[in-house]
Write a structure and sequence with these properties.
Layout lengths: L13 H9 L9 E4 L6 H18 L6 E4 L10 H12 L5 E4 L3 H12 L3 H15 L14 H8 L2 H8 L4 E4 L2 E4 L14 H6 L13 E4 L8 E3 L2 E3 L4 H4 L3 E6 L2 E6 L5 E3 L19 E2 L18
């Protein structure tokens, strides 16, 4: 069984974590893992970390691999508080370059916490489950309590808020752009809007960033998507029980999953429409026979 000690490293201060995230080893570009939307499933986070730890061990690398989390750690699932705890711990692991990115769900939570804005929308799309994990019980179908900000400030640990506020919108490593939702085609990275990086959806307009590959989550797909210029790894963990990570080793793309078949390869294919539609191209080549994949319900596709 893979070593789960990744979840129990020494804890660093927020300042130390910020400095560590800012320095990515050049060698780490040759082995990168990027994990899709977790959405309060701490059980699946532990499983994918075990898969990644085992893969690193089998790879026999002698440098620090890079581990990127693509946002949406909270909401929908039952264990958002535990997921944030785990990510803070993982971020300080001395043998990994860890970069956690901001997702639209973390942004919604911070809007409520800081400014009291958007509470009703957040509660209806998983915020109530997040609050429950912190010991606050609210009705997602009723108007947000007038004292919600006060309740949150008493219940949510300060280090959790500091961690969420420290999350950047994007990480660029070599020819790969890591972001929660996507980028606006034809716009320089420095000019991208926060709303596009957090809320944009898959489209059929071709390559978003010529010469680069955009790696993202946010839009749930039935299986990981690998097309020219794009890798999408949100496999609806909250609904499907399947959390996916892409493994990029010297531009060779494969995927790790919490499903029994472990790692598999997805060859590049042309994108046509949303949620798994594709044209005839090179087929997916599983390392072993894959298990049946539950489809992502339409209701989950409204707010990623």
């Amino acid at each position: 069984m893979a070593d789960l000690s990744l979840l129990n490293p020494p804890v660093l201060s927020t300042a130390e974590l910020t400095c560590r995230r800012a320095v990515l080893s050049e060698k780490s570009e040759s082995l990168i893992y990027a994990v899709g939307d977790i959405h309060g499933r701490s059980d699946l986070l532990k499983k994918i970390i075990a898969e990644i730890a085992g893969d690193i061990f089998k790879s026999g690398v002698h440098f620090r691999p890079t581990l990127v989390f693509l946002g949406d750690y909270i909401d929908r699932g039952p264990s958002s508080k535990q997921v944030v705890n785990d990510l803070i711990a993982i971020s300080s692991h001395p043998d990994l370059n860890v970069q956690c990115l901001l997702g639209n769900h973390e942004a919604m939570m911070l809007d409520v916490y800081d400014r009291g804005v958007g509470a009703d929308l957040w509660l209806k799309h998983g915020g109530a489950e997040t609050l429950k994990s912190y010991g606050i019980h609210v009705d997602p179908d009723a108007p947000a309590p007038s004292d919600l900000r006060r309740l949150m400030r008493r219940a949510v640990p300060a280090d959790h808020i500091a961690f969420l506020k420290s999350l950047p919108l994007m990480a660029v490593i070599g020819d790969y752009i890591f972001v929660h939702a996507g980028v606006r085609p034809g716009v320089a990275l420095a000019d991208q809007k926060k709303s596009d990086l957090l809320w944009s959806r898959l489209n059929s307009r071709g390559v978003d960033a010529p010469g680069k590959t955009v790696v993202h989550g946010h839009t749930p797909v039935d299986q990981p998507l690998h097309t020219e210029g794009r890798i999408s790894v949100d496999t609806g963990a909250y609904m499907t029980g399947r959390l996916t990570a892409v493994r990029i080793a010297n531009d060779r793309v494969s995927f790790l999953t919490t499903e029994p078949h472990g790692r598999f390869y997805a060859e590049p294919r042309r994108w046509r429409g949303q949620f798994g539609a594709r044209t005839t191209a090179r087929p997916v080549r599983p390392v072993s026979t894959p298990v049946s994949r539950p489809r992502v319900p339409d209701t989950y596709q409204l707010v990623g």
